[in-house]
Specification:
Elements: H1 3-15, H2 18-24, H3 29-43, E1 48-51, E2 54-57, H4 59-86, E3 91-97, H5 99-102, H6 105-116, E4 120-126, H7 129-137, E5 143-149, E6 159-173, H8 197-201, E7 205-206, H9 213-224, E8 231-233, H10 238-246, E9 252-255, H11 256-260, E10 266-269, E11 276-284, H12 291-308, E12 318-327
Parallel strand pairs: 3-4, 3-5, 7-8
Antiparallel strand pairs: 1-2, 5-11, 6-9, 6-10, 6-11, 6-12
Length: about 325
């Protein structure tokens, strides 16, 4: 039994005539007759009475007719839904991202993607990079934007990873108070110079929770220099840390893209290439991306290009890298 046979059967039942049904279906009448004969043979019952050129349904045909109509309707629905998916009119993507990326890069990505593909539902999982990698491996996500801290190495998983940009870390502070690093323009001519790690260690800081990717990077940098930072507040989430820094409680180290969304804060870049992080698109290497997933990856690359384009607001703090890599080990890199 196939859809062509059912379609022929339903059309004959509607018109009560083989020849007119064949014309309606753009078939030769003998072809339609063979289809119905094959359907009857497959089901083991007669479906139609043929009397003097007219056709009537048998009791079996009457039972089959509503079922055949439902089957044809379901097939049309399936075809329409698959077309919508293929043409990106519907569907769902599960995207993971770190909290700091959700407040910066991801917001721009989602705005651009929704403008183009309003029928695609996006489900967001906001977690640290390690949790996102676990979710990818367990099949809970289609894509994830993860952070690779240069100083701590890449988190390893059986993933395909595409590096899209490298972002400097910056220090934010209360602009209504004197510059904590003595860089006031009225006193010095080096107001735009980067802040050295030794200077940062001597200033009260607002620190993130210990499992924060950003906290791990900064702590590792301090340990590498044998420094112990002066702590004002520890364990603050991003919004709280920015608020505390803006109230003069302490300085906070944040990604450049986050600082750009808070222009009322004083911002100074940190010195040294180690105080940066690389943002990557990650997905499972053993699963081909869906059309919607591929479209989202394209939008992510586009926004990354826009952020890092010459003359862009952050082009001196955020650079495009565009390197692809396959990660093959679940163990962390050696210390």
């Amino acid at each position: 039994m196939n859809l062509e046979q059912l379609r022929g059967f339903v059309e004959i039942a509607r018109l009560g005539h083989f020849t007119r049904a064949a014309e309606r279906l753009h078939l030769a009448q003998p072809s339609l007759s063979r289809q119905i004969a094959a359907l009857e043979a497959d089901l083991g019952v007669d479906l139609l009475h043929r009397v003097r050129g007219n056709v009537a349904l048998t009791p079996a045909g009457e039972r089959l007719l509503p079922i055949a109509r439902r089957m044809l309707a379901d097939a049309d629905t399936a075809r329409h839904e698959m077309t919508d998916l293929a043409e990106l009119r519907s569907g769902r993507i599960r995207l993971g991202a770190t909290p700091t990326l959700c407040t910066s890069l991801v917001a721009d990505v989602l705005a651009a993607f929704r403008a183009r593909y309003p029928g695609i539902e996006i489900e967001i999982l906001e977690r640290g990079s390690r949790s996102l990698i676990t979710a990818l491996m367990e099949g809970g996500l289609d894509l994830a934007l993860i952070v690779t801290s240069v100083s701590s190495g890449a988190a390893r998983a059986v993933l395909e990873r595409e590096q899209i940009l490298s972002e400097r870390l910056v220090v934010v502070s209360d602009p209504t108070q004197p510059d904590p690093f003595g860089r006031d323009r009225a006193l010095h001519d080096d107001a735009s110079r980067p802040v050295e790690l030794e200077e940062l260690a001597r200033v009260p800081q607002v620190l993130f929770p210990e499992n924060y990717d950003l906290r791990v990077t900064v702590d590792a940098a301090f340990r590498g220099r044998g420094l112990t930072p002066l702590v004002a507040v520890a364990g603050a989430e991003m919004d709280a840390a920015l608020s505390f820094a803006g109230r003069g409680i302490g300085v906070a180290v944040v990604p450049a893209m986050v600082a750009a969304d808070h222009p009322w804060l004083r911002t100074a870049p940190l010195a040294g290439a180690s105080l940066a992080r690389t943002v990557s698109i990650a997905r499972r290497a053993d699963m081909a991306p869906t059309r919607a997933g591929a479209a989202l990856q394209s939008v992510i690359r586009e926004i990354a290009d826009r952020v890092t384009a010459p003359g862009a607001e952050l082009s001196n703090l955020v650079t495009r890298v565009g390197e692809s890599a396959a990660l093959r080990s679940a163990a962390p890199p050696p210390a």
